[in-house]
Amino acid sequence: MSHLDLAIIGAGAAGIGAARAAAEAGLSHQVIEASHRLGGRAYTEELAAGVPFDLGCHWLHTTDINPLVREADRLGFAIDRNFAFSAHLWLDGRHATAAESQAYAAYFDWAEGGAGMPPHSGEDRDVLSLLDPASPYFAPYAHVFSVIHAADLDQVSARDVMTQKANGGDWPVRDGLGRLVARLGAGIPVSLNTVAEEIDWSPRDHVIVRTNRGAVAARAVLVTVSIGILQSGLIRFRPALPAAALAALDGFSPGIANRIALHFDRDVFGDAPSNFTIVDGDAEPLAIYIPTFGFNYVVGQTGGGYAGHLTRAGQMAATAYVLDRVAAVFGESVRRYFVRSIVSAWETDPWVLGAYASVKPGHFGARETLLQPVEDRLFFAGEAVAMPMVATCGGAYWSGTQAIRRIAAALQPA
Ligand SMILES: Cc1cc2nc3c(=O)[nH]c(=O)nc-3n(C[C@H](O)[C@H](O)[C@H](O)COP(=O)(O)OP(=O)(O)OC[C@H]3O[C@@H](n4cnc5c(N)ncnc54)[C@H](O)[C@@H]3O)c2cc1C
After folding, report:
1. Tens of pLDDT along 271-306?
2. Mapping DSSP to helix (H, G, I), strand (E, B) and coil, where does residue 105 land?
3. N or C end of the chain: which has fewer CB within 10 A?
4. How far apart are CA 44 and CA 54, in angstroms?
5. Strand ranges, E, within 171-235
6. Average model confidence (pLDDT) for the chain?
7. What is the predicted pLDDT for the residue at 75?
8. Same CATH topology for 3-44+175-253+360-411 and 85-168+256-348?
9. Domain residue limits, the chain
């Protein structure tokens, strides 16, 4: 068994960022990827020839500090720098007035800012307990929250949410953020279809990663798999992870969020806003996105318990759910032009088991704890520990590069 400096588990954004940084730092390394492809939750398919659709990440968030903005520009990927999320609502059969949208935007900002909770409060309450469900804006906010955080309001630590400050814009990538990430991974040393089954860190000066295709020994290992995979026990740690790391892991929810794309054979949207939330009586609201690049598709975005319900109901039910709402807004005739849908179900993907992680109430600090290296041999990276860009692709990539800085320092001869 040859000894490398580093084994990297997972070739999603974090693993790819880490592999590129490891190459720059002169660390010998090998990436071990369970699936047949690069990118993990960054994944683009085509709804039709030349119509790319991201099943996972699509927007470059926190663009002031997102390293993927520079990479997209360098590789010639088109980005819509004018895109912005709006507080526009469709309210029971009509577009909301400007005053209603403004009131919703104010409610949204107030809720996201902690709903009046003192910023340095030591309490770690759930977000729902801070809000007034009687507000007319509660239902759309609760829905959009579940999409942003991949969990419902009562499942999420308010303190953790309050530490997540987004700086800059949210810019979609025309040809797919999944494709950008896969391009960045071209050329990294990766073994696909290779499942890390055991990470043995019992030797004093190295780590052995046992896979379905043999073992790899390295001076350190960087684990970039999702929280869902870590919680599932699919990877055995020998010896078990320290109690603090295990407690931190328990503090996360792996998250449920999905994207349901409906493709039409013509433009059925006209000059409608590129994104708004549909409120339709007592039905679960739905945030929709119409790409600004001239494609004829719409994406329904779901999160939390309702997203899980739709996954269990099946792809046809999820498609019907979005099509019914799109028909309510754009007219029943759109049904005639509907061609096909693609429906994600990340919480059932065997190599992801979730969408993006959130911290449960009472577990504020879990992200920081999980980020701590174990004996300078076991390191973690990925979206869950990508402060201050958690839950994002750019954050995951960045966290991989930052891990390499720590690993390079730890591996330096004393
Ligand atoms: C529906 C949805 C929408 C999103 N929208 C956005 C967005 O618009 N913008 C944004 O920035 N982010 C978005 N995100 C979040 C973003 O996709 C993730 O934060 C990011 O892609 C996570 O990257 P990662 O490297 O941390 O993890 P992953 O992408 O999960 O990579 C981990 C890799 O590890 C592999 N693996 C798992 N188990 C093993 C094993 N035992 N052995 C070897 N390999 C293993 C997996 O196959 C995977 O390739 C979205 C996510 C979802 C699900």
Report:
1. 999 999 999 888 899 999 999 999 999 999 999 999
2. helix
3. C
4. 4
5. 171-172, 190-191, 196-200, 207-211, 214-223
6. 95
7. 98
8. no
9. 3-44+175-253+360-411, 85-168+256-348
Ligand 1 centre and the CA of 318: distance in Å? 22
Does 15 have pLDDT greater than 70?
yes
**Two tokens, residue 386:** 């990508």
Residue 1 above 60 pLDDT?
no
Residue 113 predicted with pLDDT over 80: no
Contact 81, 171 (CB under 8 A): yes
Beta bridge partners of 95: 90
381 within 8 A of 31, measured Cβ to Cβ: no
Domain 3-44+175-253+360-411: CATH architecture, name and number where available: 3-Layer(bba) Sandwich (3.50)
Percent of the chain with pLDDT over 70: 98
Second CATH level (architecture) for the domain 85-168+256-348: Alpha-Beta Complex (3.90)
Task: List Cβ<8 Å contacts ≥24 apart for 314-317.
Answer: 315/341, 315/343, 315/345
Write the pLDDT tens digit of every residue in 249-264. Answer: 999 999 999 999 999 9
Q: What is the pLDDT of residues 321-363, one digit of tens each?
A: 999 999 999 999 999 999 999 999 999 999 999 999 999 999 9
DSSP for residue 131: S
